[in-house]
Please model this.
Amino acid sequence: AQSVTQLGSHVSVSEGALVLLRCNYSSSVPPYLFWYVQYPNQGLQLLLKYTSAATLVKGINGFEAEFKKSETSFHLTKPSAHMSDAAEYFCAVSEYSGGGADGLTFGKGTHLIIQP
Amino acid sequence: NAGVTQTPKFRVLKTGQSMTLLCAQDMNHEYMYWYRQDPGMGLRLIHYSVGEGTTAKGEVPDGYNVSRLKKQNFLLGLESAAPSQTSVYFCASRRGQGNSPLHFGNGTRLTVT
Model:
């Protein structure tokens, strides 16, 4: 069975500092991996996804994530945080084999706080 | 292009009352899903559908029923609401399996007193 662990329910960074949100996955087969962002009172929006084409994936709003098979990780980064990045971030996994008809498995989320 | 639309946006129920949440998507997606979001729990799958006329149970199906009579609509029903069902409910759809991302609605905030 697949699972996702996000380290840190809350992460606080200063505006302009590096953002690093950690995600580790467990999957019996090569996975598809996703990062979503949720702003207050809104649904989840796709930031980026890993589909095995390249290990470094670039997404919207300057975010990127690197797939590391040896570490079973898919950490999300952004070089310089903006106040508008304050939101909840979710990592999710979908297994390659069998297609994952039952959707994605989500981590519990990381709340990103930006200090002025 | 509306994407995924959920109605209503807010609802307050008394214990034992029933209600139906409606999800509509205009992207011709085959797969549709209902999740609930609770603080510190992330999103948990309630039920899902891989096509018109088909439904399946997810991780937390108890107390909920669903129907997919039309491809574009996915209904979530609560027959007898309980306080434990106080949550934010999200509908999502996707074109296919595997690397196809989920597209989410803006959620329904349900309070059961």
